[in-house]
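To illustrate this point, what follows is a protein record of this kind.

___
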Amino acid sequence: MVPGRTWLMKEPTLQEWRCLQPILGALLEKSRDPSSTVRQMAVRGLGNLVIGAPEKLRKHKGAILTTLQRSLEDVASVEVVAESLLALAKVVTELKGKAVGSAFREITRVTETFFEAEQASLRSASFNLYGVLAASATSRWRSFFREELKNTWSILILHLRDPDPGASLVRAPGTYCRDISAIAACSAAAKSPCRAPPQK
């Protein structure tokens, strides 16, 4: 993301609702445009808009999340899907897990489907979003997320050796890494043969 664009979104004039409302409406509309390039730019704009004025757009989180989740199913364009993953990372960061609501579960599970995608851009963006989800998980979603980690920990560890630097260099929050390490250790212990205690 170009730093200047984020700065522009934080301009006081743009944060006034009378300016934001038509921009939001246009981006939501263009997310369905026949052109994949236009759809990609619209999705990127939604992510940047949330960063620029999170409080004013909070009441429209439903429409924004629905649009970005729908864009994850854009089979016609890998670029749109990757952009949607990146935009969701921005939205979840700003809204936090509690404000994301029940969409947290669906976003988490859809994100996992891209871990082994053929395209490096999808792998990188999905690992990035997963780390954001881990950091944003509230007490309501923490146990759910830990269960998801039990199913994906091996892929998450292997991604550190991803042939694409953009994917392999994605790093997760500390608590997320500790959970993965603990789960991996438990899994390894479960597969090891039990040894009888030494005879005295």
Notes: The chain is about 75% helix and 0% strand.
